[in-house]
């Protein structure tokens, strides 16, 4: 009896074991090959993984790093470019923005700032080139490392994603026309005209000078050889003093520092010389108000900074840039218009 019971129990146990084994095999057959699918991704999955790896920082939730490099850090013009860029970065959000600039207009210092920006992990560099040839090689190197280049105010001789600047030749011609009107109003129908520029290699101011000279073509005035003050107000004033001693009836300053120097020289000489310049600052506005300067071509540096920031972020994200060559315009400032 006990043996019959034991036999029954043993048979029941064997049947249960067989059923359990069959169930496990059926589950294994029905389950997906998890190991195989993990080891062998489809081409579409490979492409998606590649796209994720190549996606810009902004798409992965990281901040887009944009660095502004200007000609120097002292001119109010560059302070305004920085202000426009900073304000737009705050509006866009998710932007890590920094302004890096030499303490003076110097090619070597600007090249160093570009190298520092690349080493700092910049996704995009907004730059106003001090010398279009001197800075080209280092910008080419930055581009080869994936950095997007945006020009504000003054381009270099290498292609960028976009350029936001004044039509400098047209604005220079307007400056010349303003001086002609003022000279004629003062009864000075001929005489010597001096020009104070930054350097022969600065593209933006070279174009301003070319436009200014064009305005005097066919006139009785003699445009003297250009003198260079490196954008420094004190050096520019010394040059303007020499022009005044030489009997000039008019002097043109091609940028902020040059214009301040020209205005101060005319003020120191007690007037009598027509001064016209470029850019807008508190010092320049004061010189216009007291009559030391007749007119000034005011650019829109804040617009350059704003539009440059928009373009920089779009370029990093791989988005289209609405306009890639933009004339940001000028306004003629005189005693009447600023009041």
From TrEMBL:
Pfam families: Peripla_BP_4
Signal is among the record's keywords: yes
PROSITE patterns in the record: PROKAR_LIPOPROTEIN (PS51257)
Signal peptide: 1-20
Keywords, in A-Z order: Signal
Subcellular localization: Cell envelope
UniProt biased composition (Low complexity): 42-56
Protein family per UniProt: Belongs to the bacterial solute-binding protein 2 family.
This protein's name: Substrate-binding domain-containing protein
Source organism: Diplocloster modestus
Organism lineage: Bacteria, Bacillati, Bacillota, Clostridia, Lachnospirales
């Amino acid at each position: 009896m006990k043996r019959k019971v034991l036999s029954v129990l043993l048979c029941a146990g064997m049947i249960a074991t067989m059923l359990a084994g069959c169930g496990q095999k059926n589950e294994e057959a029905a389950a997906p090959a998890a190991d195989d699918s993990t080891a062998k991704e489809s081409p579409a999955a490979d492409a998606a993984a590649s796209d994720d790896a190549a996606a810009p920082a902004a798409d992965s939730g990281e901040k887009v790093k944009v660095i502004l490099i200007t000609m120097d850090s002292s001119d109010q013009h560059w302070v305004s470019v920085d202000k426009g860029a900073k304000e737009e970065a705050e509006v866009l959000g998710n932007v890590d923005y920094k302004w890096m600039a030499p303490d003076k207009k110097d090619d070597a210092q600007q090249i160093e700032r570009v190298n520092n920006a690349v080493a700092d992990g910049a996704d995009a560099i907004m730059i106003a080139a001090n010398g279009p040839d001197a800075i080209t090689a280092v910008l080419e190197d930055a581009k080869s490392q994936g950095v997007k280049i945006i020009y504000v105010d003054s381009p270099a001789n290498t292609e960028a994603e976009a350029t936001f600047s004044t039509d400098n030749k047209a604005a220079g011609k307007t400056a010349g026309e303003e001086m002609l009107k003022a000279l004629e109003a003062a009864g000075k129908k001929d005489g010597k005209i001096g020009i104070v520029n930054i350097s022969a290699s600065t593209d933006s101011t070279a174009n301003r000078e070319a436009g200014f000279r064009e305005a005097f073509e066919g006139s009785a005035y003699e445009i003297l050889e250009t003198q260079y003050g490196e954008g420094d107000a004190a050096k520019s004033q010394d040059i303007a003093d020499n022009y005044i001693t030489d009997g000039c009836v008019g002097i043109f300053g091609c940028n902020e520092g040059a214009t301040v120097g020209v205005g101060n020289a005319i003020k120191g000489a007690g007037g009598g010389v027509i001064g016209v310049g470029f850019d807008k600052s508190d010092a320049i506005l004061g010189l216009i108000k007291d009559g030391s300067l007749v007119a000034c071509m005011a650019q829109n540096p804040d617009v350059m900074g704003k539009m440059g920031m928009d373009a920089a972020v779009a370029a990093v994200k791989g988005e289209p840039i609405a306009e890639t060559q933009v004339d940001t315009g000028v306004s003629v400032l005189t005693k009447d218009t600023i009041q």
